[in-house]
Fold this protein.
Amino acid sequence: MSIYIKETKFAASNLIKLIHDEEDQLIKLRSTLTKKEKHHRFLYDDFIRKDFDPDDHFNEHQMMYAFTKQAAYYESQIKPLTLEIDELKDSISAKQESIKSLSGALLQIAKQGISIVHGTLESCPNGRVIKNESIKNIIWQGRNQSIHYEERRFRPAVIQCFENIGITLNNENLAKEIIDLLNWRTYANYETDITSLLE
């Protein structure tokens, strides 16, 4: 086994574990959001049903009482739930960015292995092929996209690789999509690929 693989095993294996842990938390957050949104719809529909028509011959006292009751219901039931939903959406967004960043870090470790052991992409063995692209190129171009995605300008090699593997380039970090494509769901899968490239 290459020295590089041995020395990066701790980092790579923990990144893969962290990615999965973050994905598990993301699933829970999404589930909670779905439940809260459903409850919000129920409460809001109830709130609308309690609305009244001012043309319905209410006296002034009845109208003031109805308005006060509606306002209290909104403040005590609907508004807090709306705030919870907004916070959950922010948490989901942050969790997604965390997963992308961790995936980018894993691609960086793999790409650096190619650079350190072989110097250039061309000198590296191809490894297995996915959708007519070698994994060495998927790693290299995936890492480049992950690092430069905010610039929204990609080299032709990145564009061609992403076209070939069927992932649409956009202004987001697509490192997680690359990790999923490579099926690096376990350290064993990752190590098998990296070994094929570095030994």
Summary: The chain has a mean pLDDT of 90. Helices lie at 3-49, 60-118, 135-148, 156-165, 175-182, 187-198. Residues 3-198 form one domain.
